Amino acid sequence: MRIAMFTDSYLPARDGVVTSILLTKSQLEKLGHEVLVFAPAPCNGEREKGVYYFRSVSYSKYPGYSVAPFPTNKCEILRDLNVDVIHTHGLLFMGVRSMFAARTLELPVVVSFHTMVTDAAKYYAPVAIPEWITNRLFWVYLKQLLERADSVIAPTAAIKSELLAYAPAMHRVEVIPTGVDCQRFRPDIDGTAIRQQYGLDGEKVLLHVGRIAWEKNLDLVIKGFGELSASDPRARLMIVGEGPAKMHYQQMVSDEGLDDKVIFTGFISDDLLPQVYAACDASVIASKFETQGLVGLEAMASGKPVAGINYRAIRELIRKGENGYLFEDDPASCAEAMRNALDHSNEIRWTARRHAVGYSVETSVQKLVDLYGYAIRRKKMVLSGKLF
User: Fold this and answer.
1) Residue 208 sits in the same domain as residue 259
2) How many CB atoms lie within 10 A of CB 273?
3) Cis bond leading into 12, ω under 30°?
């Protein structure tokens, strides 16, 4: 198959959507399929070979990201490329473009619902609008997008239930999580070099990986860690990533008197991430924004338990005492879960690993290929008048 993937974010930007696309694209190509990426042009001029870029402008509310609102000839390009199916990973400008292209070229379209845009809108809206109005407007739009797709992908059952509540007339919605690369993330990787680099020998290390953004709920992690460190002087928190809220959280750490116990590493390359997971004792996720929580699976694949918030996709990912511990939206509860995760047994390391293997990228991509086949068949039936 020849698959056109549309996305609102792509390299050099890094987020969960970009990671998902890169993993999926690589596995699809191993199976002999061809993947063509359509994305907004990065404003820093860095371009990836083989990517079809849309003219864009930088998005001032989120440094490093760009949007592509301009007219384009990509339909003509898609026609010449003889694409079999369009898979949109973007829900905003690129979501609209993918639908327009699919309708114009009579192609099937599959939508992956990676991002709860309604949760993030209040932080990045260009103008101040009451949150209830923003939510209502977004869901009116998203309902149209989802119900026009031939197939919709929800990363977790929790997200599938939410989508069905807002868009009950979707043609088909399947739970297909982004798979984790269990060959890259393994329990036998040595994290000694990372521990030495950051002065962590002999310490108990909690790891937070991801964009440092408002919607990631890092306030809770830092406050919970403050309570934990008061009773455990060996505890350390490593925060890996970059983002628009980094300075805010650095100041918060300083205000909490945790400068000597919290490390902001900045961006760490993909090549080093397996070693970073290997260097930690446990991982933590407090974001209510997640539709899946891929970083939790990466930690589990590395044999590390996860302390995660008892909400949405994270609640679905974590099994208490087997691969991690859940906490409520409360610093004391968060501190307790992080303490339990740090003091885990060897048995939890291996049950966490086994849980992650069930989410392997190979399994997920095979399900995706099957769904592409369904979408292609459905579109042919619609065009032939056999299905309405």
Assistant:
1) yes
2) 18
3) yes
